[in-house]
Structures are given as C-alpha cells and as structure tokens.
C-alpha cells in the first residue's frame, strides 16, 4: 500500500481524488466508523473544493493514480480539535514512526 509506505518514509503522495489532482502528506491511516479504509492527510497543493492547504479525510477506495515522491514533508499547524476521520488507527506518523527515532 503506497499510503503506508509514504507515511513510513515521509514521502509526498500525488494522486487523484474526486476527479481532482491532489498533492498531500498522509499522517494517519486506518478505518472509519463505517469500516472504510481512510487516510488523514495534509493537502498542500493540487485542486480542492475548499481553500488550501487543509486537512483532508480521503476514502482510499476513491483514490487513483497514486505515486510517491521525495520532497518537503508538510503538516498542519496546531491541532485544536481531535481528528474524527480515522476511528481505528493502523498507522500514525507521530506515534508509530517519529516516536521510534
């Protein structure tokens, strides 16, 4: 799974979602309350229906044309609210990757 590899290696993801090109850095991957595989990612470029940069919750079944690339790791500012995208976390960059270093 490329999103998992992107988190483990802190690589950017370029993909298509909702027929829009997206450039993002995935932070948490797992499953939503309804059981769908989802990723919480910081979208820093590409297209969006809202302003960028911004946190995005993507349903992985709807992501296509995925590729990884090296580049600066992007993340949002302060976390003022608890994320609700991923209810069952499989991999979190802040817990499973960075705390091991």
From TrEMBL:
Domain of life: Bacteria
Name of protein: WYL domain-containing protein
């Amino acid at each position: 799974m490329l999103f998992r590899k992107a988190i483990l290696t802190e690589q950017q993801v370029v993909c298509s979602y909702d027929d829009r090109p997206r450039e993002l850095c995935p932070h948490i991957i797992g499953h939503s309350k309804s059981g769908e595989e989802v990723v919480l990612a910081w979208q820093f470029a590409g297209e969006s229906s809202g302003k960028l940069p911004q946190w995005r919750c993507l349903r992985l079944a709807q992501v296509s044309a995925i590729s990884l690339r090296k580049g600066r790791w992007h993340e949002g500012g302060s976390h003022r609210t608890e994320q609700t995208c991923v209810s069952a976390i499989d991999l979190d960059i802040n817990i499973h990757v960075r705390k091991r270093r």
